[in-house]
Amino acid sequence: MIGGGTVGSGVFHALELNAKLLASRIGVKIKLRKVAVKAFDEPRPYPIPASSMTMDWQAVVNDPTVDVVIELVGGTGIARTIILAALKLGKPVITANKALLSAHGEELFAAAKEYRTNLYYEASVCGGIPIIKSLREGLVGNRITHLYGIVNGTCNYILTRMKLEGADFAKVLTEAQAQGYAEAEPSLDIDGHDAQHKLGILASLAHGFWVNPKDIYVEGIRHITPLDIRFAGQLGYTIKLLGIIKSRNSSLKTES
Fold it and tell me: Which residues are catalytic?
C-alpha cells in the first residue's frame, strides 16, 4: 500500500479489523506486506506498526512478492507515476483517486490494457452505492441519457445543516472541519471540484468516451447564504449541490 496518512491508516485498520470476514467471503487471506509513507511520524488516526512502514514506494511496487498495489497518496503527480510503474509490472492497482482518474484516466486505463492487468477504482465515486459497478456491469446494456445525484458528502452536510438550523455557511464549515467532515483546506469540496472529478468519471463510463474535466461546468456552494436557503424553502425547494450528466440530442455530449 502506498500512503499511510488519514485514508491509508484507515484502510490498514479496516483490513486488520475485518481480516477473517474478508478471507471467509473472498476465499483469500489478505496480507498487507508493506506500507510506503511520507514520514514515519506523520499524524494518522490509526497506528501502523513501524515494521510495516517504509519511505521507499519503489521498493514496495517492485517487490516480487507484492501481488496488488493500493494507491492512497492522492493528487495527480507522484500518484500517476506510482500507478503506471505498478501497471507496467502487470500488477493490479486499487485507487480511490478521483482527481487523478479525471485528469489521466485515459492514459492509465490504456496502460492497464497494454500490460494486461486491471485498475480498480470503485471507491473513487460514491463507493458505498456502488455506482461504478452498476454502470460497468448492471447497466451495460442500457443507453444512459441522464444521471443526477449528490456526489459530495461535505457539501450535502453543510447545506443540510444550513437548512435545518438556519446557520451561516462559514459557521457550519468551521464546525464541519473541527469534526472531520471537511478538510482544513476545503476548496476542493465547497467549490465543486471534487464533484467535477467524479462527474467526469461517471460521464465517461455512461457514454463510452473520455470526458475532459475542463469541459465540465462547475459551481460550488461557497456563496450560499441562509437567505438563499430560506427563499428556496418558501418556493418549495431545497438547495443541493448536484452532479448532472445529460446527453444532448444524439451527440451524447455531457454537461454538468
Answer: 198
